[in-house]
Amino acid sequence: MTEYAEKRAVISGAGQSDVGRRLHRDPLDLTLDACVAAIDDAGLTTADIDGIATYPGPMDTPPGFSGSGVVDVQDALRLNLNWYTGGLDLPGQLGSVIDACLAVACDLATHVLCFRSVYEGSAQGEGGRAAVMPGGGGRGSFRAGSFMQWVLPFAAPSAATWIAMFAQRHFHEFGTTEEQLAQIALNARRNAGLNPKAIYRDPMTMDDYLAARMISTPLRLYDCDVPCDGGTAVIVSRADTVADLRKPPIQVEAVGTAIHGRPSWDQFDDLTTMACRDAGAQLWTRTDLKPSDVQLAEMYDGFSFITMAWLEAMGFCGRGESGPFVEGGQRIALDGELPLNTNGGQLSAGRLHGYGFLHEACVQLWGEAGDRQVPGGPEVGVAAAGGGPLAGVLLLTQRR
Amino acid sequence: MSDHEVPFRILPRVIDLNRHFWTGGEDGELRFLRCQDDGTYVHPPSPRCPNCLGKNVSPEDVSGRATVVTYSINHQQWMPGPEVPYVVAIVEIVEQEGVRLTTNIVNCDVHAVRIGMPVRVVFEEHADGDERVWIPLFEPMKTDGEQ
Ligand SMILES: [Zn+2]
């Protein structure tokens, strides 16, 4: 098999700030806590870091969506950079980490600090999600352009409604049920109970799930992730630097970044799946490993249905079969055949926006997950992020 | 629509490229750019036909008939707007597969909406300063005997 470039990249460290519903701390403070922890975790110093990759770069709106950009972090840590990138037009939030893998693979950088931070919890204040809706909740002279003109005039400002329509179509074509979808949320909550940093840790039953208020059919409250404050960082290093590192690095085995349909929430060719369909298929062309080799999956759950789409996209089950796959929840539990979103995901641990999945995959592969550690010393994991037209995924290995 | 108060809506930023779409309602017509060389409807509007890459695209009326591809009954009041619950749907125009609009299904019970349901356009007029725009919403096709 071709020696694909990403195999020259490893993840050498990971770090995370405090995570909370509303911390009311300066977002750069959270970002730097994560970055410094990740650098330290790798056994490196700021003098070793010569690259930065981040998503989405500095943005004032929507409030809380971006805690810091490249410039903020480079200057705060006085880094000398050989390469950097920060932006929104990427294959999902982890597209920035995949860019870092490519940068080290072609020797533009040696150790890249990758980060993502949010303060959506504090930014919402007491105003709820309406306070951070595009267009400022309709106040003032805002007029919708670009994609937003096709949804905002129809009172559909939230991805909750857009994703709900994908779920509804999946229910229609494949007979997927609310009780099956619920397993994504129930599994997340079960795992969050073992994660001291998770935001929602109280046990949740199927009755609790079904009794929660409807947001946008078929998505209920617990199908929607919880906005929070926090920062996450990982270090991507060139594989031949392993001697400089504090602990055995995690190998980047393969990545997926493709989107072959139209890059749109409502014009995509198949409304039962998303860009993840193409990114997932691409990933498996770049490795000898198979879906059955994967021992844990940390896959985006900004809304529960997105995880269902990722399960199918990654070939863990067939097209349209994610409902039966998660039925009952045993298969995706910590002691099941495919432990899923082992820290509670964004649904219960907090919307760290993509990077939380990669952080958790690394922690699990290093055997550092404490009470929620997947048993048996897992060696192969998936970290996937993005919904709708956004999708990026990494296959990771930690051979002992 | 006349028996309902027109709800607040965030309005689109009308530019040359999309004006036909947002103002067609003045004539009661749903309009899309269409390639005059190969007949491809182009949506969202683009200066070039995605099929032949030609620039010979201009607005044309369509029938206003469409099919519900998927929908959601939205219960959350995200911002000032229609009274909840309301239906957000993706509809596909009958003229060309894959040309879709996100819209609201109106003038029917929210629980009556189904995937595959035939619908037709109705326009909601909004003043925007000195300009006006017409938001294309959809209602169920009336069966024989009704109205
Ligand atoms: Zn053409």
Adjacency order of strands in the biggest sheet of chain A: 3-2-4-7-1-8-11-10-9
Our Rg estimate of chain A from Cα atoms comes to 20 Å
Largest interface: A-B, 42 and 40 residues
Which parts of chain B are unreliable, with pLDDT below 50 for 5 consecutive residues or more? none
Ligand kinds: zinc ion
Spatial strand arrangement across the major sheet of chain B: 6-5-4-7-8
Structural class of chain A: alpha/beta
DSSP summary: helix tally of chain A: 12
Structural class based on helices, strands and sheet pairing of chain B: mainly beta
Instruction: Work out the radius of gyration of chain B.
Output: 16 Å
Overall geometry of chain A comes to globular
Count of discrete alpha- or pi-helical segments spanning 4 or more residues of chain B: 1
Give me the strand/helix succession of chain B.
HEEEEEEEE
Number of structurally distinct domains of chain B: 1
CATH top level label of chain A: Alpha Beta
Main β sheet profile of chain A: 9 strands, mixed
Assembly annotation: heterodimer
* Poorly predicted tracts of residues of chain A: none
Q: What pattern of helices and strands is seen along the backbone of chain A?
A: EHEHEHEHHHHEEEEHEHHHHEE
Task: Give the structure's gist in a few sentences.
Chain A is an alpha/beta fold. Chain A has helices at residues 27-41, 70-76, 95-105, 120-124, 159-174, 178-192, 206-211, 276-284, 304-313, 322-326, 345-349, 355-365; strands at residues 9-16, 51-54, 83-86, 111-119, 214-216, 219-220, 229-238, 250-256, 296-299, 380-385, 392-397. In chain A, α6 crosses α9 (304-313) and α8 packs parallel to α9.
